[in-house]
Design a protein that fits this description.
Elements lengths: L10 H19 L4 H4 L10 H14 L1 H9 L14 H5 L5 H21 L10 E4 L3 E4 H27 L15
Length: 179
């Protein structure tokens, strides 16, 4: 009888998923009308443009800097706190198309930096110090990076569903995302 076994972390699979994110973002957002890109599903929720600002900023301030801290020989492994909204200021006035190009460029640089670190299996257990969680491993950080991508891709799909779903009339009852 089969048992449920949680798979081992795979840096190869994680890297491959991270490499696909720019094209997936472009496919989901690249051809949307401007009002879909700036649509807020509810007050205080992010638009697709906000999400693009956030993920693009993370390529500069979050994933690789923290990976480099963990992989360094420095005694101090503290991460700089990540401001989830700093990208809103950094990319104020940018179009979705420009953000998609910038994210693609930065993700390429991030993957090159990740490859240059030549992370081995033992390195995945190296630790850094998160400002909220304390000690975290490189495996956890890399797992969070790819999960972060998928979470925002899901968010983009949900917001787009709600934008276009405003016009479905009685079919709303068939779409849990619209209720």
């Amino acid at each position: 009888m089969p048992t449920d076994v949680i798979g081992q972390f795979s840096l190869t699979e994680t890297r491959a998923a991270l490499a696909r994110t720019p094209a997936t973002l472009r496919a989901l957002v690249g051809q949307l009308p401007p009002d879909a890109i700036t649509f807020h599903e509810a007050p205080g929720h992010w638009s697709l443009l906000d999400v693009l600002c956030h993920v693009t900023d993370g390529e500069i301030t979050d994933w690789i800097p923290r990976t480099q801290i963990i992989m360094s020989d420095a005694a101090d492994k503290r991460f700089t706190p990540f401001d989830m909204q700093s990208g809103f200021n950094r990319y104020r006035g940018w179009t979705a198309a420009a953000l998609l190009d910038e994210f693609d460029r930065l993700r390429g640089e991030s993957l090159a930096a990740l490859d240059a670190l030549q992370i081995g299996p033992a390195d995945l257990q190296r630790q850094g110090l998160h400002p909220e969680f304390g000690a975290v491993t490189l495996e956890q950080l890399l797992g969070t990076w790819v999960t972060h991508d998928f979470a925002h891709l899901t968010q983009i799909a949900r917001v787009s569903t709600r934008f276009f779903g405003r016009h479905v009339g009685p079919w709303t009852k068939y779409f849990s995302l619209l209720r």
